[in-house]
Amino acid sequence: MPPFQELAVFALALIAAGAVAGLLAGLFGVGGGAILVPVFYQVYGLFGVPEAVRTHVAVGTSLAIIVPTSIRSFHAHWKRGAVDMDILRNWTIWVPLGTICAPVIAAYIAGRELRIIFAVLSLLIAIRMFLNRQHWRLGDDVPKGVANTAAGFGIGLFSGLMGIGGGVMSNLWMTLFGKTVHQSVATSSGVGVLISIPGLIGYIWAGWGASGLPPFSTGFVNWITVALVMPLTLYVAPYGVRLAHSLSRRQLEIGFGLFLTAVSIRFFVSLS
């Protein structure tokens, strides 16, 4: 049994991770998995969960928490009239389909190259946000039809391949085509719902019957962790939404630029 002091430290880490994830969900329309997964990984290691399944359980459990957090964040943004429902309706099938296809395609694509592409792209968009270069975009409006459908599939696919929430990539896509950062963040919260639900189902299915799972797990989802962390993320998410809409466009651009820089650094570090 782990020492009490270590249990206390990791309990505080879970609380902090849940709060930050909820805030990010509301503020930037992202899931917060980049915060939750590393913390869960360390906690499960403390309790002796085997390395073979530890990362899988961390990711699956993170997705379980992101589902209701994304829904709450999306609803709060939707009530403010900031969500572009036309984009989401077009992506309703294609983003989840891309997410479902990711595990199959991952067997044939080197993850290192994908992380390099994503890290560089995130950094370039962060620079654009910092320098306020609004002419650094591909068009004045998000394309319709096949192009936007392909983008939705690609967002789901790349997010599934790299183990990230779709909010970052959908934000990048929409801001490159002239959407304001407020509207991009709001719409991305809905993308998190489209990715997290099929992702959660996939991790339950993939881990069904696996050995070494922690107690009270269904597949790669541990419900004890969900019960401990989810209430805080749900509580904090609306405050992130409120903060996002209280900031000016420039302030939100700077904040999102800093977030993208942190994401880019994380992927570059993972390459070493």
Automatic annotation (TrEMBL):
This is Probable membrane transporter protein. It comes from the Bacteria. The lineage of its organism: Bacteria, Pseudomonadati, Pseudomonadota, Alphaproteobacteria, Hyphomicrobiales. InterPro entries: TM_pro_TauE-like (IPR002781). The chain crosses the membrane at residues 12-41, 53-71, 91-109, 114-131, 151-173, 185-208, 220-240, 252-269. It comes from Rhizobium setariae. The keyword Repeat does not apply. It is a multi-pass membrane protein. It is found in: Cell membrane; Membrane.
